[in-house]
Specification:
Blueprint: E1 34-38, E2 48-56, E3 60-65, E4 74-81, E5 92-105, E6 113-119, H1 124-141, H2 146-160
């Protein structure tokens, strides 16, 4: 699972999918979400590009893109979330800015890249909304109960160490 975290309980060392220590502060959710962003390659013209996330957190996202973005590239983003739960009965758009942290060419597909970005100006209200949405999404669409995932994560983590 690209970008997945093997252990995320406090007090455990988290490992990323590639075996390196995971330094993320926020839990990732395997969420497919369309994002619109003002394309920095448009050279002054306002051009919007859509991309699909592979995973998402209140701190940032990981996505697949058909071209390279340089690290530290600033992205003006717009997400549209569907209604969920009793508090949010209508779609909600969230606009913010993010910075590209890394952009790596996919090994098997030469013209695609995996991009990781972190949010830089997410308002407290939008951050709270994202946290609630991701918690709801994880509960509704999780493949296995949280307790089972933590036990499995702990076992995998010990096998790696």
């Amino acid at each position: 699972m690209p970008g997945g975290v093997l252990g995320s309980k406090e007090g455990h060392v988290s490992m990323a999918w590639n075996g390196k220590r995971d330094r993320r502060k926020h839990r990732r959710v395997n969420l497919r979400l369309l994002i619109e962003f003002d394309d920095p390659a448009s050279k002054g013209e306002r051009q919007t590009t859509q991309l699909e996330t592979l995973n998402f957190s209140v701190g940032g996202f990981y996505c697949r893109l058909s071209r390279k973005l340089s690290p530290l590239t600033r992205l003006a983003l717009r997400f549209v979330f569907p209604p969920f739960g009793p508090r949010y009965e209508a779609e909600r758009a969230v606009s913010c800015e993010a910075v590209v942290v890394h952009c790596d060419r996919e090994a098997d597909v030469s013209e695609h890249y995996r991009v990781g970005a972190c949010f830089t100006d997410l308002s407290a209200e939008d951050r709270e909304f994202l946290q609630e949405y991701l918690e709801w999404y994880n509960i509704v669409y999780a493949e296995e109960p949280e307790e089972d995932r933590d036990v499995a994560d702990g076992q995998q983590e010990e096998e790696i160490a």
